């Protein structure tokens, strides 16, 4: 049997050094999985980790989308492209991740479903924040967080501010493209409504991609993210249908 000797340069004493586990806070992270079924149901761990890892990836997605929004405000569109490409890959990963949960059968899920109580992904603060940042706003969703003042205030701030797409339209207006005034001065708490009066501006951009390269590429990135977001939501819906059918979920 081959035996690999430790290289002399490899550090093995971490009594006074930061280790991999220290940097990532792995002891705390790996101690966050607490199935409530009694006796513990084998598949509840899958359910917990599926949703915890989704929240971690959504945390990164929020981090990236908020950075992109700030860059658009600063007229630095080209700096957004790598960020939004990363967001698309996070969305792809979240889409594929549902395949793991699909290994849970309806009969297995029902054995621990009761311990979930009324907890549901519907209550995900990060998911709502992403929705609002992308322009799918609904003030009624604030009520879900009425018992948590900090989360309620954070989500309300996103609701009342321009979305990433709104900021893109403001950018186009600053650069001389014919954006209708009703798109620039509106109630940001309302979901964006399609406006046919935007067509002339986008015709200019798409007819002249070299002249308006940054605006063109940003539009394509936003379309990518919107499409990926719809696919992610659709995959979620189909996974839920597969596991619980058309019954009401925990939310």
Using brief descriptors, characterize the structure shown.
251 residues; mainly alpha; Methane Monooxygenase Hydroxylase, Chain G, domain 1; 11 helices
Characterise the protein shown here.
This protein has one domain: Methane Monooxygenase Hydroxylase, Chain G, domain 1. It has helices at residues 20-24, 26-29, 44-73, 77-101, 106-110, 125-133, 149-160, 164-174, 181-184, 199-207, 213-244. The termini are far apart. Helix 3 (44-73) packs parallel to helix 8. The chain has eleven helices and no strands. The chain is 58% helix and 0% strand. The protein is mainly α.
| Cα end-to-end separation | 54 Å
The geometry reads as globular
Assess the beta-strand content as a share of residues.
Answer: under 5%
CATH class (first level) name = Mainly Alpha
What series of H and E elements makes up the topology? HHHHHHHHHHH
CATH level 3 topology: Methane Monooxygenase Hydroxylase, Chain G, domain 1
Contiguous low-pLDDT stretches (5 residues minimum) are none
- Rg over CA atoms, rounded to whole Å, is 23 Å
Task: Supply the CATH architecture.
Answer: Up-down Bundle
| Helix vs. strand class | mainly alpha
Percentage of residues in helical conformation = 55-70%
- Count the DSSP helices: 11
Beta strand count: 0
Domains, number: 1
């Amino acid at each position: 049997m081959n035996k690999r000797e430790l290289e002399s340069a490899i550090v093995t004493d971490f009594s006074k050094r930061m280790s991999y586990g220290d940097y990532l806070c792995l002891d705390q992270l790996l101690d966050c999985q607490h199935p409530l079924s009694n006796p513990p149901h084998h598949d509840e761990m899958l359910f917990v980790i599926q949703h915890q890892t989704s929240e971690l990836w959504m945390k990164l997605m929020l981090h990236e989308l908020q950075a992109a929004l700030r860059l658009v405000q600063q007229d630095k569109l080209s700096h957004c492209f790598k960020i939004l490409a990363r967001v698309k890959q996070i969305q792809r990963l979240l889409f594929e991740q549902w395949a793991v949960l699909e290994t849970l059968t309806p009969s297995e899920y029902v054995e621990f479903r009761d311990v979930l109580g009324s907890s549901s992904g519907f209550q995900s603060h990060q998911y709502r924040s992403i929705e609002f940042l992308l322009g799918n706003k609904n003030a009624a969703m604030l009520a879900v967080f009425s018992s948590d003042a900090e989360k309620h205030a954070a989500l309300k701030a996103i609701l009342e501010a321009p979305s990433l797409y709104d900021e893109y339209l403001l950018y186009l207006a600053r650069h001389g493209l014919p954006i209708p005034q009703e798109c620039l001065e509106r109630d940001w708490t309302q979901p964006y409504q399609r406006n046919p009066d935007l067509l002339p501006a986008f015709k200019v951009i798409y007819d002249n991609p070299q002249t308006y390269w940054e605006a063109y590429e940003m539009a394509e990135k936003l379309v990518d993210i919107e499409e990926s977001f719809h696919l992610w939501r659709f995959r979620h819906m189909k996974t839920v249908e597969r596991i619980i059918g058309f019954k009401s979920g925990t939310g």
